[in-house]
From TrEMBL, chains A, B:
Domain named Aspartate/homoserine dehydrogenase NAD-binding: residues: 10-141
Binding site for L-homoserine: E201
NCBIfam families noted in UniProt: PRK06349.1
Originating organism: Vulcanisaeta souniana JCM 11219
Gene3D superfamilies the UniProt entry points to: Dihydrodipicolinate Reductase, domain 2 (3.30.360.10), NAD(P)-binding Rossmann-like Domain (3.40.50.720)
The protein, known as: Homoserine dehydrogenase
Pathway assigned to this chain's UniProt record: Amino-acid biosynthesis; L-methionine biosynthesis via de novo pathway; L-homoserine from L-aspartate: step 3/3; Amino-acid biosynthesis; L-threonine biosynthesis; L-threonine from L-aspartate: step 3/5
Transmembrane segments: none
Enzyme class: oxidoreductase
Annotated catalytic residues: K216
Residues binding NADP(+): G10, F11, G12, N13, V14, G15
Keyword Ion transport attached: no
Residues that bind NADPH: K118
Length: 327, 327
């Protein structure tokens, strides 16, 4: 059985779910994935973790050697892992740091990288692609847009097609809130419910104000080949939405882009539109293609296991696309 | 630029669209696809066709050397093509013949095969897989289920997942008729309109009686790993549907399968169900997966260019999965 050494950076919900999923699925996949290390700001540096490390991980307490953040790039560089999986928190203020430094250090030291973090990909797309080319290593980031639900990677199944535009519901938090508002709740009631259910953060502004779907729209655009940047996105969130004022139409927070323009804004959709009926936490992405017209994918856009699936999809892509002996 | 020789069997709507699409996209794809021959029961055997052959193809008249059907397997065997693309008509009475003979002859004579014909795949799945293994050549059939719109191949983007069940709207003709019935037409009026628009055949029974989606449900099941055969499908079509009798729910002709059972029947769906809002000619497939829950793909399920895209997707799969020198 082929063997790949994996280093995990970030052992919160997604990192833990990924660790569990790897152990659960590696026999089915026929690959011996060995997690040679886990690095986490609070749980520490855990070398050669046993499967049992998962049982205490949710507490957030120190499980290995205490680490200082500045040490992490050094650990990545020294690691003998083949693949680095990066699951740290989104940081917009610092434009995707420190995750970008983790990823670039990994690529420079000869490792393939996987990330579910929108920050480095949205803010440093060109640099990451250049490092990938220069060091001949793959960078994968399926989990940045719609978790494990096929999104931009559906283009791998559509060779030769040209994308005219995309439109999607790329944020489950705001979709949940809007759905509940149509079911009679006020915005504040719906937001509070979302927070109680864990669908929204204590500070929900990244979702409510459209920043999260804007980052995803940038990533989608870059994959398609349109050079939109985060600063180019026209963003309007859902704070001022009045669901009663559009007759039979359904307002959704829509992310839309074509070669010329990219925006995120609440749009009233006709009831017959497939996206109008994508409710609660679900996400959806419609692509308009030259040979097929519109195709749409609907599924979860977040969640620990759903996002871990994305990282597993990326891991198998790397396994299937690298020459085993040549790494 | 890499080169692949392609033999086309069947030069009707889909064969012609595929020929056009190849010429249109080969530079974008960076592969020199050379159509070394076209074989068609009425248009004849056309060796080394020029792109211009397309202009007369729609007439159906003889364009090359007259062929007798019995000669076709011999032509396939003698051909020096790398890949055979089979676009002949579905034949249920003869359980997928003569297409199955075309495909098996191609595999035995060292050629990879692509088909958009449900017959050979639904009725001879095991034999085709065995021939593929024995002669070390690929068989691809994306166009048999939902044309170029991702369907079973979406599982390539979901490694490690287990499918619990699938349910789908796999027939555009009946979906169109049901949609129009909800818009006020009778069954007969809707059928006549579908025929006038070319969405239904003069003999529409394969669609109306659920046979077309049943074949697709078998193919989907076999790809997933469930060994259902055409005889196992419980089939009920739309001849006796009363759209007025289910309150707010929407009747759709649903194909459903899990490991134990496979059926095609009209099912009333709640309005909130994504499939309830997939209208007119569109198809949709929902997969229930262990790590993601339900994901759904919506898109066209038929059409000349849409089906040609499926064959192009298959062609690029073959190109990307065979060792160029080893064929």
């Amino acid at each position: 059985m082929r063997e790949y050494r994996v280093l995990i950076i970030g052992f919160g919900n997604v990192g833990q779910a990924f660790f569990e999923l790897l152990n659960l699925k590696k026999h089915l996949l026929g690959i011996n994935f060995i997690v040679t290390g886990i690095i986490d700001r609070s749980r520490g540096l855990i070398s050669n973790p046993s499967p049992g490390v998962i049982s205490e991980a949710h507490t957030g307490k120190l499980l290995g050697k205490k680490v200082v953040l500045d040490q992490i790039p050094g650990f990545i560089e020294e690691s003998n892992a083949d693949i680095v999986c990066e699951f740290t928190d989104l940081n917009i203020k610092d434009k995707g740091e420190p995750a970008f430094t983790y990823l670039s250090t990994a690529l420079r030291s000869g490792k393939h990288v996987i990330t579910t973090n929108k920050g480095p990909v949205a803010f440093h797309y060109d640099e990451l692609m250049e490092l990938s080319r220069k060091y001949n290593r793959l960078i994968r980031f399926k989990g940045t847009v719609m978790a494990g639900t096929p999104s931009f990677n559906i283009l791998d199944l559509l060779p030769g097609t040209r994308v005219e535009y995309f439109m999607g519901i790329l944020n489950g938090t705001t979709n949940y809130i809007l759905t509940r508002m149509y079911e009679g709740l006020t915005f504040d009631e719906a937001l509070r419910e979302a927070q109680e259910l864990g669908y929204a953060e204590a500070d929900p502004s990244l979702d409510i104000d459209g920043v999260d779907p804007a980052l995803k729209a940038v990533i989608l655009s870059r994959v398609i080949g349109w050079r939109h940047r985060f600063e180019d996105v026209e963003v309007q969130g859902i704070r001022d939405v009045d669901v009663k004022r559009h007759g039979d139409r359904v307002i959704k927070l829509i992310a839309h882009a074509n070669a010329d323009r990219v925006y995120v804004k609440p749009i009233p959709l006709e009831r017959g539109n497939i996206l109008a009926n994508v409710s609660r936490n679900l996400n959806a992405l419609t692509l308009k293609l030259d040979t097929l017209g519109e195709i749409t994918v609907v599924g979860p856009g977040a969640g620990r296991m759903e996002t871990a699936q994305a990282a597993l999809t990326d891991l198998m892509y790397i396994v299937n696309h690298v020459n085993y002996l040549g790494r």
